[in-house]
Amino acid sequence: MKKEKNTETNTYVVDREYRLQYIGKNLKKRFPDLKIGDVCYEKFRRKENPCRNCPLAHKNRKMDMFYNEDEQKWMKINAGEIEWPGATGCHVILTREVTEKNLDELCRFVNMKKEVVERKNSCKGERNKLTGLFSREPFFRQTEAFLSVNDIQPGEYCVAAIDIEHFKLFNEWYGQEAGDRLLGEIGAHLQKMRQEVGGIAGYMGGDDFTIVLPNSEEILESLKRRITGFVRAYGGHTGFLPAFGFYVIDDLDVSISLMYDRAILAQETVKGNYAIRSVYYSADMKTRLENNHVLLTQVQEGLERNEFIYYLQPKVNLNTGKIVGLESLVRWNHPDKGIVAPGYFIPVMESNGLVTELDKKVWEQVCQTLQGWIKAGHRVIPISVNVSSVDIYAIDVVEHFKHLVKKYGLPPEYVELEITESAYVEEYKVITGVAEELRNAGFTVLMDDFGSGYSSLNMLKDVNVDVLKIDMKFLKMDENTMGKGMGILEAVTRMANIMGLRMIAEGVETEDQINYLLNMGCIYGQGYFFYKPLPVEEIKRILLDENNVDYRGIQARKIEHVRFKDLFQSELASDSILNNILGPIAIYDVYQDNVELLQVNDKYCLLIGQDPVDLAENVQVLQDIYPDDRHKMQNIFQRAFQRLAEGAEGTVRRRRKNDQYMWINIKAFFLREQDGHQMFYGAVRDVTEEMNQFRKLMAYQGK
Ligand code: C2E
Ligand code: CA
Ligand code: CA
Q1: Measured between alpha carbons, how far is 450 from 471 in angstroms, rounded to an integer?
Q2: Is pLDDT larger for residue 300 or for residue 47?
Q3: Class in CATH terms, 1-124
């Protein structure tokens, strides 16, 4: 933002009610809407009361300094009594930017600390480009100066921490550019808000914003309304929501960064809770933090004393009840408390990174067990271990597991890794990359807690996992929510089957659930109905009877391998059979900014609900694509061009007859290029149903 130069003097006259009686030329230029009779502090500084050291209120003080927040500069102000026709108690006021030269003298005169002035000045230009807001350090400095210059009283102001939950996913879906725009707009909203009511706004990086505002319910409500309304609308009502944490500045001795930390602490209690989106900091949050600290110390001691062990819980074939695999679940064998479940200590350990120490120990123990079994001559089944997303950032998980299987002489297929779905959501690129490498190294990767968060159809196609582990929440439904949960489960199962993904349901407790899962085509499960997590020795005893075990493990639906060329050339496949096998297909011609249809088959016409004659007159595809999705459509072809063998895929909205939109999924392959025209083969599917199911899933999770 370019600032207007303002080294000239602004002149105006106010009466004893602070009403403007005269507006100088320069001032008029700067505030074109200013009228005679306006109240100066309302118009210039958006305040409800006269400025603190206003010369009008101080008989002997005819000079002062103030900080112009909008322009980030110090202004010198001179005042003198003046006779003015038709008004009483008038003063003429002159304001002018403070220059380096007279700064010292001025500071002495108005009795202001020069450090404060310089601190404020040092922040000039330290705004984040994307959002136009102060970045972290300048924000802290600005706020500090703001609080001291304006003589803020305890309780008068509030620090808000704002975060857009699942913003990373937003970037993933809509692209970085759209994500940046979102951040920019939020920045603009905060800036506006700050100008309206007074305060300081900052951008802390990522999707974290903060703003210091007057502590009034009305103002904070309006902040929430504005930001939430905007994000909701911008995100296409897909469930991206901001989370707010507030810290009321009731202790001015606390550093600004600590104030912000407290707002963050409050904010963190909101995350993942879709009913409550804002929370005020309270002292018990601090207590909780301190308790966590105590717990962490104990956990650390526990680690040193090797008090952590693991249990094993079998995974079974739901038809036969036979064991197809095992999962290791850590336990704390506490000297006083006995066996403690991980829900008590894992979250705290994750928040400070200690979890990786623990996980490495568990993984190593698991590998030892497997080695022991092999050495004893037993037939072995795979054991899965839980991998926290924290681990993936802390260490090179791929190298670590490679090292482990080498050290213990294990075939990698016996070691499986469960990575929770939320990890993919948070750090999509990193986690998918790691999953890919693990699979390349021969390990099996499971997506744990699938369906608990924001997994999308689109994401699933790109995430290369071996097995989906369906969250137990779907099976824990009461009578009212049963229908919903089951509907989603069905959609998930259908999708997984179409994609040839293997899957297993967790938390299976009743016979009804088993029947339901089997009916849907999910044939593997894990849960108390079959086995609880048990100590390793007990599992060993169970495994000794080979009748309890199905050594084939978790299988995908078996499909015979068909060679495509054989199919085309064979007499067996008539056009109509091929039409049915291939489903709707189209050949596209992509040139410059155009996408044109060259050829389509009957199924394609059927799918989009147009007869071939109409279609021939209407070969420009993009105009029928929902405007927001056009770029995405072109992007599919760009990617297909870059990835010849794999092709590229994407889902867009396309107009059907009667102007309704349908969701179509296009898998495109590059064929050839000529004279700037690129030809693509596209297999098209109607995924409206799945998208609706998916939206329901999101809406359901949003409740
Ligand atoms: P998870 O990976 O989703 O594990 C499933 C949890 O559900 C386990 O709880 C298991 O005991 C429990 N469970 C199994 N069947 C049933 C059932 O039929 N009904 C019900 N209500 N619950 C069932 P647990 O052992 O308390 O573990 C909780 C979570 O702690 C795990 O969830 C996992 O996220 C984490 N965790 C466990 N072990 C480790 C570990 O070694 N490392 C890491 N990083 N996390 C671990
Ligand atoms: Ca797990
Ligand atoms: Ca799970």
Answers
A1: 5
A2: 300
A3: alpha beta
Residue of 329, 389, 506 with the most ligand 1 atoms within 8 Å of its CB, for mutation: 329
Nearest Cα residue to atom 44 of ligand 1: 388
- What CATH number was assigned to the domain covering residues 292-548? 3.20.20.450
Give the mutation target among 360, 386, 389, 475 for probing the ligand 1 site: most ligand atoms within 8 A of CB: 386
What is the whole-number distance in angstroms between the Cα of residue 527 and the centre of ligand 3? 11
Written as six digits, the tokens of 305 are: 């004393």
Fold agreement (125-281, 570-699): no
What is 570-699's CATH superfamily? PAS domain (3.30.450.20)
Ligand 3 being an ion, which residues bring their Cβ within 5 A of it?
A: 448-449
**Taking the model in full, what pTM does it have?**
0.57
Instruction: Check: CB of residue 182 under 8 Å from CB of residue 172.
Output: no
Identify the burial level of 603 via C-beta atoms within 10 angstroms of its C-beta, where 0-12 means exposed, 13-18 middle and 19 or more buried. Answer: middle
Residues 6+ apart with CB under 8 A from 273: none
Tens digit of each residue's pLDDT (9 = 90 or more) over 219-250: 999 999 999 999 888 876 566 789 999 999 99
Tokens of 508: 């299976």
Q: Which residues line ligand 1 (CB under 6 A)?
A: 313, 329-330, 341-343, 346, 355, 359, 362, 386, 388, 418, 448-449, 506-509, 526-528, 533
Taking the centre of ligand 1 as the mean of its atom positions, its distance from the CA of residue 329, in whole angstroms, is 6
Q: Which residue has the tokens 């309890």?
A: 548
Q: Residue 174 corresponds to which tokens in the numbers above? A: 């809509």
The ligand with the least distance to the CA atom of 397 is 1
**CA angle, 445 as apex, 442 and 450 as ends, to 5°?**
165
CATH classification for the domain delimited by 125-281, as one of 3.30.70.270, 3.40.50.360, 3.40.47.10, 3.40.50.1970: 3.30.70.270
